Amino acid sequence: MKPFFLLTTTLWLLLSTSVNAQSLADLQQLRQQAQQSGQNSAPGQSQGQQTAPVNVAPMALSGPRTITSMNGGLPQNGQYYNESRQGQPLPGEPTIDSVFPEQLPMENPPYAANLFIGGFESERADGLNDNYLIAQGDKISIWMWGAVNFADVVTVDNQGNIFIPNIGPIHVANTPAGSVNSRVTSRIKQVYTNDVSVYVNLLTSTPVSVFITGPVLRPGQYAGQASDSVLYFLKRAGGIDFQRGSFRKIDIKRQGEIIATADLYDFIKNGTLPDISFKDGDVIMVRPVGATIVVETGARNSFTFEFTDNELDGNNLTEYATPRDFVNQVSIAGVRKGNQFSRYLSLDAFSDFPLRAGDTVEYIDDHEQKVYRINIQGSHTGPSQVMVDKGTRLQEVLTYIQVNQKLSDVDNIFLLRESVAQQQKEILDRSLKQLERSIYTAPISSTGEGGIRVQEAQLVSDFIARAREVEPLGKVVVSEGDQTANVLLEPNDTVVIPAVTDLIQVGGEVMMPQAVVYNPEATAADYIAWSGGFTQRADDERILVIRKNGLVEFDQINGAVFDEDEGEINLRPGDQVIVLPSIDVKSLQAVKDITQIIYQIAVAANVALD
User: Fold this and answer.
1) Alpha-carbon span 398 to 416, nearest angstrom
2) CB environment 51-67: b (16+ within 10 A), e (fewer)
3) How many CB atoms are closer than 10 A to CB 399?
4) In the chain, fewer beta carbons within 10 Å around the N or the C end?
5) Exposed, middle or buried, 147 (CB in 10 Å: 0-12/13-18/19+)?
6) pTM higher than 0.85, yes or no?
7) Quick check: 609 and 470 in contact, CB under 8 A?
8) How confident is the model over 416-429, as pLDDT tens digits?
């Protein structure tokens, strides 16, 4: 009974001790404690006597593993996940960001780069491809009935054969899946010639393992079907590296020999890819990028193109780039013999022009504009656009514009011109930059003044931000009284014919901006009074009057209480009276600059920005 006693004591120590044995030394220590307990038992106790029962409590172990069931001593297979990680890296696993240096995005990506957009590598058609070639390891089901009954699933062996009893081996390797039925049936019919029906079907196709290397984002070993295309495997590897990899030379190697070369330009242009069936151990090798030409603008395909040395000419580039309509000139910039090089050629002459790696090409529409469009707005009854020859003047266009004499004010015509609006915008931007420099570089003589300057800078910054959003109209004054200047027109000019009106528009720093019926006896002060008077921020010394034809004048009103003698400008129907905001001289240093900008905005855009 001593061995049984020692075993019981050992189990008791293993279960009751609070220390988990993690090493051989721990186990030996527990075994020694059990032996000492057996030797120190009561001397009068015989081996045949029963010891007192021991209360054993189950251990409360915590760990990541749980025992789901007993398998009777059979080996347990490990479990694994076969679902995609969806691009999530494992802890410590290198990522694209940690392997590749950060690069700026390419303005002109490689031609055919969109082949690797999306997740088409995860899309698979249901069923088997009829063009799939039978390989070792594939499973084929065979049924025979009639004079002979047979049903079994056979596997293609290493020699590419399947074996059928009483028939013998049948070679099926490299047979298309759509032809395996006829091939096996014909072989069986050679033995069983009568009263035997046969049906053969490919059940599974064995995946192949293909290596992908070269300038791809994730080179390595990837699994797929033998009938998968080279595009599928390249997409599995993350696609070709835009900066380093070639889209024109992708070699497929088998046992060290190149069996095919893929050119993705041929696939994009002609739908051509190598027609091969992949096998285990095949290598897809992307070669380094060759000579590249960048097409910046003017083409439907403004990409970076890769060419071989014998393709570097303008004709090949134009064929791939596809210039836009009306392009007639080409600009080429590059390096020749270590010196900067540039040419400006016609599209026809560019066809035979030799290019060099690194050249930059622009396709340009450089036709002389002999006919352009003039827009008509306002009160007219004819078309809103007319096409005129280069050199046409305003008076020539006015003779073709149909108006209603009672509704159209032909004495106050003005133009809206894009070039003038752009110049007004540039002048305003320069003034705003000057104001910004002056407010941030103003001298500070004390700490208290520094705090005031900080608040002032914040207010001025807010004003500058709103002022930069103003879009000038580009008004051109061409009429005064009954005279209209016969100015030369520019492309996209807009001729504005105001409508006859009886209103005066009052806006800006007044209590109630509104339109007031014209009164020949009233002055600017009267119209402001009818609009509720000035606000607290109004500049009552200079009132902006914008005439119907675009002319700008200033009226002056001294004080908020109007006198009979104030108001020197005779207003006319259709005029705008705008009260500008005043600037507090005590709080802001750059009063003069801000006041000038406010005037510029009011004149250029007909708005009062406070």
Assistant:
1) 15
2) eeeeeeeeeeeeeeeee
3) 6
4) N
5) exposed
6) no
7) yes
8) 999 999 998 998 88
